[in-house]
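Example 3.
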Amino acid sequence: MHRFVNPIRFLKLVSAVQPWAMGISIVCLIAGLYFGLVVSPADYQQSETVRIMYVHVPAAWMAMFCYSALAAASAVGLIWRHLTAFVVARATAPIGGAFTFLALATGSLWGKPMWGTWWVWDARLTSVLILLFLYFGYMALEGAFDDRARGMRAAAILAIVGAVNVPIIKFSVDWWNTLHQPASVVKMDGPAIHASMLTPLLLMAVGYTAFYFWVMFVRVRAEFNDARIQALRLRQSEA
Amino acid sequence: MDLSAFIDMGGYGAFVWPSYGLSALVLIAVVWQSRARLKRSDAELEKLRQAADAQEAPQEAPEAAP
């Protein structure tokens, strides 16, 4: 990993992988939409609302995946003082926040017809709402300092402390008696859903994951550009 | 495939379609904002580099002349 700490090498890698991530994302999302909306059957209990699963579950997975990436990058940035890691963390936060919002909003749209309520303060829903506030908190704190390095460090500490919430979300459905159902795809004895539903779900999940890397890479490049712009401006004002 | 049945989604169209629509809207907005930001910074960086080159060029010229 230390090879990619060099920003120039890292940027080269990012620029090379970015179009692939974009391609994989778009292809998988189109295929996922086709399988999810057209090919896959309605559920015998949930009828057509089960299709909400194909946008809800991948968004929820990505909400946690992005937060794990945010916390890990923050830890690397703090421990080894790698600016590149902080840049990845900064680029990740708004994407993870968007996925978390989508998980909550689509969950609400699924909850209304199936549970009879838009929202309930159960452990799963509440812990995911806290996740959304952690993303907001990270972004607000990170931009709240005049000294950018200080802001990044302060936000990184928040991100690491908030990582406690990730296992709480994961196991909330087992630890507490929630209205939200327990996991049915990621299980020790294999997924408990039929291949006709697993196919669109996994396609959407791969599409969302590739989407994260695509957009994160775009944002990382913009971050490095901004740093260069700042350096050039400083040099010009000194000249 | 019956289009009106597809749109109706077994009576749950009002929940299924907003889920997909909102997801598309948010993801497209994130891509759009991120790409716009990159483009803006690319253009800004190019402008600054050209300005820096233009500044350095006349300084080098008198040194090279004698």
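Chain B has a mean pLDDT of 87. Chain B has two helices and no strands.
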